[in-house]
Amino acid sequence: MDLRVTESPSVYRHLEKKSVDELVELINQEDQSVAVQIKQVLPQLSRLIKAIVEKISGGGRLFYVGAGSGGRLSVLDVIELPTTYGLPKGIFNVILAGGIDRLADALEEKEDDTREAWEKLQAANVTTQDIVIGISASGTTPFVLAALYQCRQRSIPTGCIVSNPDSPIAAASDFPVEVITGPEFVTGSTRMKCGTAQKMIFDMISTTTMIQLGRVEDNSMVNVALINDKITDRAVRMLMEKAGISDYEEAKMVLLKYGSVKQAMEHVSRNV
C-alpha cells in the first residue's frame, strides 16, 4: 500500500497560532465531512451487515478485532447491547489488543502482537459459523491483520473497517468497508475523523443488526433491560402507550413481572 491517507499532512498549518474560536470551527468543518464519506461506502457496509445478520440468525457470533482508538470504540458499542436490546452476552464480542480489562491503559504497543488476537479467537472457539471484523484506521495493524489471515486460511468469514485505500487488511477481508476520511486535523491523529467514522459505523452495524433480529418494534427498544429507575420508567411509559394501559402502577407491575416490554405486551395480547 503506497498511499496512507491517514498519515498525510494536515491541510491546516500553524495550529498553535489559531484562536479557540478558529480551532473549534475548523474541527467542526472537518467532522462534517465524515458522514459524506460514509455515504460513499453504504453499499459495502450493507453487504457486511447482511453477512452479520445471516451469521447471528444462524446461531453464530460477531468478533471485532482491534487495537488503539478503533478497538476501544468497538468495546463501547458492544457493552451497550445487552442493556439496550436485551441481547445475550457473547453474541457481539471484542478481541482488544492488550485485553478489555486494560481498556483504559491504551497499550498501543500491543498492536504489533501477531499472536494474541488469533489465540483469543481460538480460546473463544471461533468457527466458520461466526464472522470476524478487523478494525484498523491504517489498514495495516499487525494485531488485526494476523488474525484475519488465520481466519481466511480456515474459511472463517471476515470483514473490516479501514480508512486507507487498498490496504492489506481490506485485501484479507471478505466484506471490506473502506471509508477514506482524509488527512486528520492534527497530522496522524486518527482518533479524530477516523474515530468518528468508526463510531458512526459501529452504531449503524449494531442498530441495524438488532432491528433485523427483531429486537426493535416500531421504533422502540422493547427488549431494554430494566437496570435502573430511568430505564424502567421509560419502559413503563412505552408499555402504557403500546398496550393501551392507562394506569402507571398497573403497567409497572406487569412490566416487572414479565421483565421486558416485549414479554409484557405478549402477556397483554394473550389476555385481551
UniProtKB/TrEMBL annotation:
Q: Which keywords annotate this record?
A: Carbohydrate metabolism, Lyase
Q: Which domain of life is it from?
A: Bacteria
Name the Pfam families for this protein: GKRP_SIS_N
**SIS domain sequence ranges:** 52-215
Q: Is Lyase one of the keywords UniProt gives this record? A: yes
Keyword flag Nucleus: no
Q: Which NCBIfam families match?
A: PRK05441.1, PRK12570.1
Identify the PANTHER family for this entry: GLUCOKINASE REGULATORY PROTEIN
Q: What is this protein called?
A: N-acetylmuramic acid 6-phosphate etherase
Per the UniProt record, the source organism is Parapedobacter defluvii
Q: What is the lineage of its organism?
A: Bacteria, Pseudomonadati, Bacteroidota, Sphingobacteriia, Sphingobacteriales
